[in-house]
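Let's do one together. I've listed all components of the complex below, 688 residues spread over three lines.
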Amino acid sequence: MLGGIMMLDSSNIVGQNQKELNSKNSFSKQLSGKIENFLILCIEEQDHKSAAESKLEAGQAKSSMSALPIFTEISGTNSFIIWERVYQQSAQVFNSLRVASRNRLIRQIADNIVTYLLMKYKKLSPALSTILNDERKRMLAVQTIEAMLKKDTFLVNADVWENFCNWFRAHLTEWVLEEMTQSVGSEQLESLNKKELNELFYQYISKNLSGDIDFLTRFAAIVNSYTVDWVKRISQSLNLENCALHEIETILNLNKGASFQEFTPLSPTNDFTLTVQDYVFVMNSAPYQSVRESLYKKNFAAAHSFWPAASISKGSIEGMLQIKPLQKGSYPLAKENASVQEAWEQAEALSDLDADIFDILCTNFLTKAKHFEDVVDIQLDDLLAIRGLKSKLGGEGRRGGYELKQRRQVLKSLSLIQNLWIDLDKAVVYEKGKPVETKLQGRTFLFVDQQRKDCRITEEMNEKKISYTVDGVFAKYLFGSGRQVALLPVKTLHYDPYRKAWEKRLARYLSWRWRIQARKSDFLQPNKVSTLLEAIGIKLNDRIPSRTRDRFEKALDILQKDGLIKTWHYEKWDESIADQKGWGRIWIHSTIIIDPPEYVKEQYRPIKRNRPIQTLPKVQLDNRLSEESNKMIGSQIREIRERLSLSLQYAAEELEMSSSYLSSIERGIKTPSKKIQARLIKWLERFH
DNA sequence: GTACGTTCTTGCTAAGTAAA
DNA sequence: TTTACTTAGCAAGAACGTAC
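Okay, and this is what the predicted structure of the assembly comes out as:
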């Protein structure tokens, strides 16, 4: 039964709570002193493989994502709560379980480090690439690292584990109490005696552990963020980022006559703790999604006031989003006022980048904050790193790090986000477990300084670190039964906001949709093309609909290639319509079925455990063979051109065509005429 | 920090084509 | 002949990378 157990215990938590109580006078924090010490048992199902194992088997762990999350696998785990007094009664049994659980976590960390190192160095060392396919060798390497972790790192220290458990328990207690306050009411809770309170607490936490996806995902996220921090420290202490190849081989226990290759250390700025996960968590409330959409759609216009405003209408909420700078005293009543001008400039400069920064702020908050009142930090450079941008290398008299221009851009986005003002006339929030209609007003994120006072973000600011928290509107949706978090692929944030804007927006929209559909396990609900286009803020090109369609289908193909969606296909669409006039207007009414990747389905499974997840019907192949052959010839040309290191410009000149046209052919977007095709084939033959 | 190169997207136009 | 739509191609501009 006990395939692996993770036990998170608590002891001596009172002192810590006392300290926090002084700084913030939250009701739930007062209550937490009354809660008895408890432990969480995570019993892994025996036949369930670890995240890293199953990923490797599926062949998904490819080059880009180096390491894997340590503790995100929640669906295969049964978690229980036990009181510490119960633990004491059977201390011997539980103690051995506790040791076993620590070992399991260490094994998981070792596994991650090995996977990371293999992915990073496989191209440079033949010896390393062989163990990727040899499970036995891989296990040996994991064991070597495991032994090293147990012997040479801070994990030897019992205090480290003690702190981890305390930290974890404090989070959990507060969340649960917060939810209890929301659903039962604070007066009711106060009237309970200690025993009743503890019983209620037990009920709530058990309910959450047994199947509340949002609870479980946050549970996983905070443990993961803690252990990722460990991995970072371990990697520093073992100097994994800068050692030479043969040292890596030695570490992985492979250095037996392996061939060496001269090696220069890879960029130390490529910090794998930031790209450790394929997915991050973001809020999934309707206001959150509305703000995100307004940012990239740039649909701010003049409304009742002088400020740029975008109307919000999504599901049960209605209202508007304004760009209204933070200001003391009354707002100006003149159109010419400088801050009004500034707001309009910001509305004009909106881009997908702002939505990215917005998401990153959110995911950082969800990972670090245990309470919506908490203030969290983020480094400016981390914001850039999460977007997948590379910083410059230092050395040889040159300065390393990110450019001033890039930092300014981030500050510009932050300044905009600071200025956002949400004004909802109608919103549904959950109070005491029941939906209540209300009005909501407030900012999105509040940026603060050391003293928790408002801090104005400007482009010229020199701060490297930004502190912020959420304002009332989002806070309402973060706790209690209305809470919802969604998985957002990190790749979404990496897409070029200019060139890959369609992909970025689609990925965002799908992340939101899937989380909503997860309640019904209905991932295969068709999406109308017009709705999808509307969601990504694109209008059909009336004159040349094929442009819109081609770009749209290309975006879906790229998402599929990058693993953000599993498959996609038209549900109601007859290809012969495309030959008729006015097909574009029919096309936007067609429907598309988009199948989420297994990982997403797996993570959302606990939301609706009982119902099996539907499988996708066979994909209909549309008979556009000519398009396939186009792509063939295009990819051949690209392959040869890149092999010869020729620029598009140069090759296009040789082929007597424009570079953009050649690019379109290479990407299979445009169909060359017979004449052009003949020319291309002739050119290809020169190099065969 | 700046200048420049590369790659790609988008807007636009001329020319071609098929149906009304 | 007119209309609706597509194709080929140019020019401008955005975003990123790199060299100095």
